[in-house]
């Protein structure tokens, strides 16, 4: 197999006495969607925050595009093409789609040798339209504040922003939370589009149907440790749930005391 | 499931504009331009009532009266302009009133010091400008640093600095008005671009105050005094800054969603410091202009204007939640207050009633802004998760 885009080696993160992430290693390859599953408090979010520069791992190493990587701050990760879409989407609801896609990285026109710089709204609108079209996303209007958009549409804006800025790796934290069922389907569809664009996605979720719908591979975490890594096609809900609740240990052995009967 | 290749037309959370009812659209339009309408109706009201009350002796819409309103508006508007940026950025600056006072004292002291030290008049005035605006900017910078870096709420920080600045202003002015300024600065603060003397022996005078007295002086109108022109330039600059530059865009972004601004890499702390420095600077400008206008520095000139300036900002449609508002809105807000006050004075309405009317307008303005959101089916920002 080709060199992985992102490679984690023995990542450990502690908060005082609590080991939030315990010796986790994994590889992410180009063009795959990897589901990161686990119960609440399993360490999923902490792990991706170590990747995106919010936290710094206490132990272990990270390789991005084959090079040793250390992101001191989230902005460093973004400069390297690691885009994280959090549940709050990091959108300014009072600004329009174009302004949001270019938020913090506005395109400017220069006058008098750069002495006066103004926003180039036309250019930003054109680029936004092109990106949205490449993802086959259609909005009735791009010049209204996005507070009028639905949750799924806002998710689409956040994804389009990451795509426009050449995301090499996309991390999505529970993107289908708080969405209606039709909207969930559309967000999953967008994740498939990202894969078509060759952008790998780490999808944090605890919704198993979502994971089965879009992922190629699933990593399960339990109490900070990686307990399973399976090709999506070679596993099933029952097995994953057993890993998630700790009824199966990391060698795949069923622990009878911990087994929880599943409804048939 | 969505079939692949189809366009994703995500269901809208809100009805798009095309399916609003005509009544809704009319209401939306009315709520958007209500401030203009209100201003126009008010002017119309005074145009009709002022001659009625005075028996035809006084008229509202005269050159002299319009210029009086413009002159009166200058300090309030300058305070309100800086405040507009701060409030759009979801902050508040309660210190601008006393900062204006401090700037008035500082510019008077510096100007007098420079002139007495043998400097010609114009450079002395520049020294006064630098001292006034610079001193104010330092206060704003300190406000910004405490708010952005030490995370103390803006309300508390600016309340605290307003007391401190008040003390400093009294101290520097030695508890009295700073006088002994060169008489020549009167011209800077009061002269105008254009003069017009009505009737016999009159005419236009451009850039030069005609040396007349008695009857001719009474018939003379002063058109566009320099402080008004300076303020107009500040207005134009502020509008440009807010609408056309990255600075303005980031101000809206920070007011609309602090987390989003942080996550997208906007230097939020630095921006907040700039906002408060800007706010104090426009207050400093107001203080400097008042020193020129009255040929004296006063430590009590600014404070009464603070609440009027915030009222102007709010009437102009700036959301106290942050993230919404325009410079033109603030200008109209300031105009509404000035026209209202002037008109009521000309109707011989008692002063206390002016306050009651202005207060009512502030509350009604906010109600109208909220009804716009209701009509459009939007959520108030405060109600979102």
Structure write-up:
The complex is a heterodimer of chains A (264) and B (385). Helices cover 30% and strands 27% of the residues of chain A. Chain A is α/β, with parallel strands linked by helices. In chain A, the strands form three sheets. In chain A, strands 6-10-11-3-12-13 form a six-stranded mixed sheet, with helices on both faces. Chain A has a four-stranded antiparallel sheet with strand order 2-1-4-5, covered by helices on one side. A two-stranded antiparallel sheet of chain A has the order 7-8. Chain A is globular. The two termini of chain A are 39 Å apart. The model of chain A has no long low-confidence stretch (mean pLDDT 87). Chain B has 15 helices and four strands. Helix content of chain B is 67%, strand content 5%. The A-B interface holds A 74-75, 78, 86, 88-95, 99, 103-106, 108, 117-119, 135-141, 144, 147-153, 156, 180, 182-183, 185-186, 189-190, 192 and B 1-2, 4-14, 16-18, 244-246, 248-250, 252-253, 255-257, 259-261, 263-266, 323-324, 376, 378-379, 381, 384. Strand 9 of chain A pairs parallel with strand 1 of chain B, so a sheet runs across the interface.
Write the layout of secondary structure elements.
The complex is a heterodimer of chains A (264) and B (385).
Chain A: E1 6-15, E2 18-28, E3 33-38, H1 44-51, E4 59-64, E5 67-68, H2 74-79, E6 82-85, H3 97-101, E7 108-111, E8 116-119, H4 121-134, E9 137-138, H5 151-164, E10 169-173, H6 181-196, E11 201-204, H7 208-214, E12 217-222, E13 225-231, H8 237-244
Parallel strand pairs in A: 3-11, 3-12, 6-10, 10-11
Antiparallel strand pairs in A: 1-2, 1-4, 4-5, 7-8, 12-13
Chain B: E1 8-9, H1 22-32, H2 34-54, H3 63-88, H4 96-116, H5 121-149, H6 154-172, H7 185-190, E2 192-197, E3 203-206, H8 214-218, E4 220-225, H9 226-244, H10 246-256, H11 258-263, H12 268-294, H13 305-315, H14 327-346, H15 351-376
Helix pairs in contact in B: 1-15, 2-14, 3-9, 3-10, 3-12, 3-13, 3-14, 4-5, 4-6, 4-12, 5-6, 5-12, 9-10, 10-12, 13-14, 13-15, 14-15
């Amino acid at each position: 197999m080709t060199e992985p885009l992102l490679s984690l080696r023995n990542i450990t993160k502690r908060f005082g006495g609590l080991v939030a992430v315990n010796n986790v290693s994994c590889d992410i390859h180009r063009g795959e969607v990897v589901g990161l599953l686990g119960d609440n408090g399993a360490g999923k979010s902490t792990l991706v925050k170590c990747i995106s520069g919010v936290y710094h791992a206490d132990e272990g190493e990270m390789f991005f595009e084959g090079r040793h990587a250390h992101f001191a701050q989230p902005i460093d990760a973004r400069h390297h093409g690691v885009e994280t879409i959090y549940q709050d989407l990091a959108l300014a609801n009072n600004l329009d789609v174009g302004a949001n896609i270019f938020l913090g990285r506005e395109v400017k026109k220069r006058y008098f040798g750069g002495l006066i710089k103004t926003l180039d709204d036309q250019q930003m609108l054109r680029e936004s339209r092109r990106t949205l079209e490449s993802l086959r996303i259609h909005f009735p209007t791009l010049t209204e504040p996005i507070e009028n958009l639905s949750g799924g549409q806002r998710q689409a804006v956040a994804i389009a922003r990451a795509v426009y800025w050449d995301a090499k790796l996309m991390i999505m934290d529970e993107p289908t939370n708080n969405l209606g069922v039709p909207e969930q389907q559309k967000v999953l569809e967008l994740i498939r589009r990202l894969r078509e664009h060759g952008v790998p996605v780490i999808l944090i979720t605890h919704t198993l149907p979502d994971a089965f719908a879009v992922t190629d591979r699933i990593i399960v975490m339990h109490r900070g440790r990686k307990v399973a890594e399976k090709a999506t096609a070679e596993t099933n809900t029952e097995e994953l749930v057993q890993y998630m609740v700790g009824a199966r240990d990391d060698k795949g052995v069923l622990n009878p005391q911990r087994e929880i009967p599943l409804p048939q | 499931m969505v079939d692949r290749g189809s366009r994703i037309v995500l269901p809208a959370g809100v009805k798009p504009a095309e399916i609003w009812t005509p009544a809704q659209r009319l209401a939306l339009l009315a709520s958007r331009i209500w401030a203009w309408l209100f201003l126009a109706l008010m002017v119309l009201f005074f145009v009709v009532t002022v001659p009625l009350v005075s028996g035809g002796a006084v008229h509202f819409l005269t050159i002299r009266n319009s210029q009086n309103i413009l002159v009166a508006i200058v300090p309030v508007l300058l305070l309100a302009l800086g405040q507009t940026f701060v409030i759009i950025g979801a902050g508040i600056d309660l210190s601008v009133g006393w900062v204006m006072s401090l700037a008035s004292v500082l510019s008077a002291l510096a100007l007098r010091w420079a002139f007495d030290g043998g400097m010609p008049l114009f450079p002395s005035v520049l020294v006064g400008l630098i001292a006034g605006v610079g001193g104010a900017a330092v206060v704003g910078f300190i406000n910004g640093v405490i708010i952005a870096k030490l995370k103390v709420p803006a309300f508390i920080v600016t309340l605290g600095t307003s007391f401190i600045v008040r003390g400093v202003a009294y101290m520097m002015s030695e508890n009295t008005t700073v006088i002994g300024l060169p008489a020549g600065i009167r011209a800077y603060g009061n002269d105008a671009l254009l003069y017009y003397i009505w009737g016999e022996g009159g005419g236009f005078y451009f850039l030069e105050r005609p040396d007349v007295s008695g009857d001719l002086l009474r018939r003379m109108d002063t058109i566009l005094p320099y402080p008004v022109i300076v303020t107009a330039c500040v207005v134009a600059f502020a509008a440009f800054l807010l609408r056309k530059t990255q600075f303005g865009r980031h101000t809206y972004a920070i007011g609309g969603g602090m987390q989003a601004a942080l996550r997208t890499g906007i230097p939020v702390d630095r921006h907040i410091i700039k906002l408060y420095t800007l706010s104090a600077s426009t207050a400093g400008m107001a203080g400097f202009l008042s020193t020129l206008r009255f040929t004296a520095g006063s430590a009590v000139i600014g404070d009464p204007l603070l609440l009027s300036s915030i009222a102007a900002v709010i009437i102009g449609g700036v959301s106290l939640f942050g993230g919404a508002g325009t410079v033109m809105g603030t200008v109209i807000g300031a105009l509404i207050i000035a026209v209202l006050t002037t008109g009521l004075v000309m109707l011989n309405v008692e002063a206390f009633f002016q306050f009651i009317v202005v207060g009512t307008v502030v509350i009604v303005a906010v109600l109208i802004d909220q009804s716009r959101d209701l009509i459009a089916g939007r959520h108030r920002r405060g109600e979102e998760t």
